[in-house]
Design goal:
Elements: E1 4-10, H1 18-29, E2 34-40, H2 46-58, H3 64-83, H4 89-105, H5 112-120, H6 122-137, E3 142-144, H7 164-181, E4 184-188, E5 191-193, E6 199-201, H8 207-218, E7 222-227, E8 248-250, H9 251-259, H10 270-275, E9 280-284, E10 293-296, E11 306-320, H11 328-340, E12 345-350, E13 354-360, H12 365-373, E14 377-391, H13 395-402, E15 405-413, E16 416-423
Parallel strand pairs: 1-2, 1-7, 2-4, 3-4, 7-9, 8-10
Antiparallel strand pairs: 5-6, 9-10, 11-13, 11-14, 12-13, 14-16, 15-16
Helix pairs in contact: 2-3, 2-5, 3-4, 3-6, 4-6, 7-8
Bound molecules: adenosine-5'-diphosphate, aspartic acid and magnesium ion.
């Protein structure tokens, strides 16, 4: 029997508690005649909770053990709800947690990012074990796959890059035979492994990307991500009223809006799918029959205004110290440093003596960058800014968005505009 390969991704919200996991099983009970790889994220906000464990341990701030115990308790409560008091899942999950117990018993000597990846990815290992066991419990035959046996990365911990050739080979030798056996294959988002077999992570919210990696390597017919929203909307419904669902999006539109902060899809997800022309469906796990959003090459480019908001932005104004123009050799020097300190650039503008650049404010990257260039340049840094990207804008919408904000940098290309803003308290005349 020939069956088509598909990849489904269930995020943290879709498996947040026992009821949610039962709902996922219900969605999966309607899958017929398909070879399905299921990529699952950590349960609910587990990754944030595991970050607390890492910080308590690696930075010696707080109590790592009690932070870990909280995570354990939440998981064992869900397990009890799903499986009752006795089931082999208790031991499987316990073994995963014990690995963290061992790590935090030792003095933290390794680099922070390495420790982070060894601890935080546990959330996905546990959730995938639970989901897989529960599907089998529901007679939906499923095999558990360790994503680290497939996704090979470099060792840039917390932001690892996929080594595609090896990953493609692994997918063929490891995943295809599992799919041929029949039933579902359940694996984890977010994690991979380095050539030394250490766990790496692909960046926060990276499970969508994992699903796209599997889709690419397996030549899937389509990929579906199941979210708590009806599909891709014209803006984040947590931030805006009157948003509407987009029935279709081109890959280009999707990559642009997710790159600039539309958090519904991880931005790295689009490239692997586009490269093999694999359509992406964004659907609601609350209303699985709903039409969702269809992302592919075939979708035209007639869109309503779409807004993406990226928080935690910093604006750097970099000026020459002697009033000379920002010339080509300055630019070369600045860009070398931007690459060296891994500043993620979202917007830039060059003037006579000042180069302005808006970047994501991550860890101490900006401070290190500034330290290295401040002998040659005067640098001012403004933090806690927002980058608003409005695609297919209408003037009235821009005016409303700017109310109560100071615009620090603005750029328009065609009908797309980007503004870097800071909030100002509305002053009321006494
Ligand atoms: P997951 O459960 O897969 O981790 P996320 O929470 O990362 O899902 O993504 C879904 C959330 O993305 C939604 O609840 C919504 O608040 C937010 N979001 C941001 N921008 C958009 C958008 N343009 N359309 C839909 N949802 C959006
Ligand atoms: N659990 C990871 C995170 O919260 C990955 C993901 O959910 O996509 O960042
Ligand atoms: Mg998420």
């Amino acid at each position: 029997m020939h069956s088509t390969k598909k990849v489904y991704k269930f995020g943290g919200a879709s498996v947040k508690d026992a009821e949610a996991i039962k709902n996922v099983a219900k969605i999966l009970s309607n899958v017929k005649d398909e070879s399905l790889v299921i990529v699952v994220s950590a349960i609910g906000k587990t990754t944030n909770a595991m970050e607390k464990v890492v910080n308590a341990y690696a930075k010696q701030k707080g109590d790592a053990l009690s932070a870990l115990n909280e995570v354990k308790n939440t998981h064992f409560e869900i397990i009890r709800d799903l499986f009752g008091e006795k089931h082999e899942i208790y031991e499987l999950v316990n073994d995963i947690f014990v690995a963290v117990d061992w790590i935090i018993e030792e003095e933290p000597e390794d680099p922070y990012d390495y420790i982070y990846d060894q601890i935080v990815g546990i959330g996905e290992l546990v959730s995938s074990r639970i989901l897989c066991a529960y599907l089998n419990e529901c007679n939906l035959s499923s095999q558990w796959l360790d994503a680290r046996d497939v996704i090979r990365t470099d060792n840039l911990y917390r932001e690892a890059w996929v080594q595609w050739d090896e990953t493609i080979d692994n997918a063929k030798t490891v995943v295809n035979p599992m799919l041929e056996k029949g039933g579902f294959v359940v694996t984890q988002g977010f994690i991979g492994s380095s050539s030394e077999n250490f766990t790496t992570t692909l960046g926060r919210e990276g499970s969508d990307y994992t699903a796209a990696i599997f889709s690419y390597c397996l030549d899937a017919e389509s990929m579906t991500i199941w979210k708590d929203v009806p599909g891709v909307l014209t803006a984040d419904p947590r931030l805006f009223e009157n948003v509407i669902k987009l029935d279709g999006l081109s890959y280009k539109e999707a990559i642009e809006m997710t790159y600039y902060g539309a958090k519904v899809i991880h931005p790295k997800t689009i490239k692997p799918l586009q490269n093999k022309n694999i359509p992406l469906y964004v659907k609601s796990f609350i209303d699985p029959q709903g039409s969702g959003t269809y992302i592919s090459d075939e979708v035209g480019d007639n869109y309503p205004p779409i807004i993406a908001v990226e928080q935690n932005q910093a604006l750097l104004r970099i000026s020459t110290r002697d009033f000379s123009f920002v010339a080509e050799h300055h630019m070369r020097h600045l860009f070398n440093n931007i690459a060296e300190y891994r500043l993620q650039v979202n917007m830039m503008q060059n003037g006579a003596i000042t180069f302005s650049v808006c970047v994501n404010d991550i860890d101490d990257r900006i401070d290190n960058f500034v330290k290295n260039i401040e002998q040659e340049f005067k640098v001012s840094v403004e933090r806690n800014l927002e980058l608003l990207t409005v695609r297919h804008y209408q003037k009235e919408l821009l005016d409303t968005l700017k109310k109560g904000k100071i615009v620090l940098l603005e750029e328009r290309i065609g009908r797309n505009t980007q503004i870097v803003v800071k909030n100002v308290p509305m002053m009321i005349r006494k």
